[in-house]
Amino acid sequence: MSDKKVLTIIGMGEKNGLALARKFGNNGFVVAMLARDNNRLEQYQQQLDDEGVESYYYLTDAADPDSIRSSLRYVQGSLGDTDVLIYNVAAIEQSLLSQTKPEKLTQDFQVNVVGAVVAAQEVLPAMEARKEGKIFFTGGGLALNPHYQYGSLGIGKAGIRSAAYSLHQEVRAKGVQVATVTIQGFIRSDDEKYNPDAIAEQFWKLYEQRENFDVEIQY
Description:
CATH class: Alpha Beta
Number of domains: 1
Structural class: alpha/beta
CATH architecture: 3-Layer(aba) Sandwich
CATH topology: Rossmann fold
Strand order of the largest sheet: 3-2-1-4-5-6-7
Distance between the termini: 35 Å
Order of helices and strands: EHEHEHEHEHEHE
């Protein structure tokens, strides 16, 4: 067990994931990284270790609820209860709804929305028992302004935004904050506003809230 607070990132990647790991890791957190690609997870762990951030990784398929549950239980067993959960997964590709097959829509929704709810269900009991905890979803501007070229992803971002609002209303009285950062642009390292470090600051802003929790930052 770690004596540090635990940040669990589902959907660890080279942009948001690493920036979030650095931000929280440099502020006293141990980082649990969950994703599908073993080689990339090893690389991220080495990179973070070189920067002085303690991290561990767990192979996880966000399309499989059992995989999410199993990995979160491993995190709890090895590091302790998750203090901050960030669901940073999305099935991102262009899709016209007039041409998208039903099974593809279902698969995307499983990744974009269902996985987030499953993850929240898994960590909530311990958070509610402690009367504290944070669950954050990475949202997107398509939830507010859909675009026909990203039909399936737009449905997913609208769904995860709705899930954040519903869960927040359900658990806020128990000391748990559920919130989403709605990113209204494309994430690029060379973009002054939508670079990963700037986005990580928005999540940290939510983490620092102790009263009058926000359910959404539109950024």
